[in-house]
Write a structure and sequence with these properties.
- This protein is mostly helical and about 120 residues long.
- The chain has one domain (about 1-85): Winged helix-like DNA-binding domain superfamily/Winged helix DNA-binding domain (Arc Repressor Mutant, subunit A, Orthogonal Bundle).
- It has four helices and two strands; from the N terminus they run αααββα.
- Strands 1-2 form a two-stranded antiparallel sheet.
- β1 and β2 form a beta hairpin.
- The longest helix is centred in the last third of the chain and has 28 residues, at about 85-115.
- The radius of gyration is 17 Å and the shape is globular.
- About 10% of the residues are buried.
């Protein structure tokens, strides 16, 4: 049973490392509110709960990676629509390059060493 917990812990570490990137990617093209972000991630087979999302959004706001605008709705309470800042746009280029390099390295290693 210990091995299973170790495997799960490693899987969670990998996921945690890319969650921030996936959240920001999900709002790259259009301003989004939290439930819309969760839906975008779900459509990409990335499951995240609100309790994980909101702290990330708060951190990104503090880091000036995103901002938000409150918008009124006739059928809903006002929502925060998150949008990316210029700082994020600059960061995005670097993160895309990092992801591309990591993806290339992992694909190389799995093709070379993976035995299944």
């Amino acid at each position: 049973m210990k091995e299973d917990n170790d495997i799960i812990a490693k899987q969670l570490q990998i996921r945690k490392g890319v969650l921030a990137y996936t959240v920001l990617l999900s709002i790259e093209k259009t301003d989004s509110y939290a439930l819309n972000i969760l839906e975008n991630l779900k459509n990409a087979d990335i499951i995240m709960v609100e309790g994980t999302l909101y702290p990330l959004l708060s951190r990104f706001k503090r880091e000036w990676l995103l901002d938000y605008e409150r918008k009124e709705s006739k059928s809903w309470p006002p929502r925060k629509y998150y949008n990316l800042t210029e700082k994020w746009e600059q960061t995005l280029v670097a993160l895309h390059e990092t992801w591309k390099d990591l993806n290339k390295a992992i694909n190389f290693l799995t093709k070379k060493w993976w035995k299944k």
